[in-house]
Amino acid sequence: MIDRLQGLGRRIARLFVVKTKFEAFLLIYALAAGAVERGMTYLHQFPGTAGWIMFVACTLVVFMAGGKILDGVERDAALQQ
Q1: Burial (Cβ within 10 Å: 0-12, 13-18, ≥19) of residue 58
Q2: Which domain of life is it from (predicted)?
Q3: Confidence band, pLDDT 50/70/90 cuts, at residue 13
Q4: Where are the domains of the chain?
Q5: Mean predicted lDDT score pLDDT of the chain
C-alpha cells in the first residue's frame, strides 16, 4: 500500500518539473502576466511614486526568477547528456 502511494506521489510530482525551455518560457509568461496584474493593483492602491516603485518591483522579480528558471533548465539538460 505504501509503495503504491509513493509511486503515485512520484508521478504527480513529475507533473511539476520543468523539463524544456518551452515549458520554462510558458511559466515565465504566466509569472509576468500575474506580476503585471499585481503591479496594476498597486498603482490603483498607491497612486504616485509608491505605486510605480511597487509595479517595477513586481516586474523585476519576474526577470530574476526567469533567469534562474532558464539556468536550471539548461543545467539539468547539461547534466543529462
Answers
A1: buried
A2: Bacteria
A3: confident
A4: 18-80
A5: 90
pLDDT at 1 over 90: no
Locus of grid cell 508521478: 11
Cell of residue 59, nine digits: 516586474
For residues 58 and 38, give the distance between their C-alpha atoms in angstroms, rounded to a whole number: 7
User: Rounded to whole angstroms, how far apart are CA atoms 53 and 6?
Assistant: 45
Contact 73, 20 (CB under 8 A): yes
Distance of alpha carbon 73 from alpha carbon 27, whole angstroms: 12
SS3 sequence of 11-33: HHHHCCCCCCHHHHHHHHHHHHH
**Measured between alpha carbons, how far is 77 from 36 in angstroms, rounded to an integer?**
30
DSSP 81: -
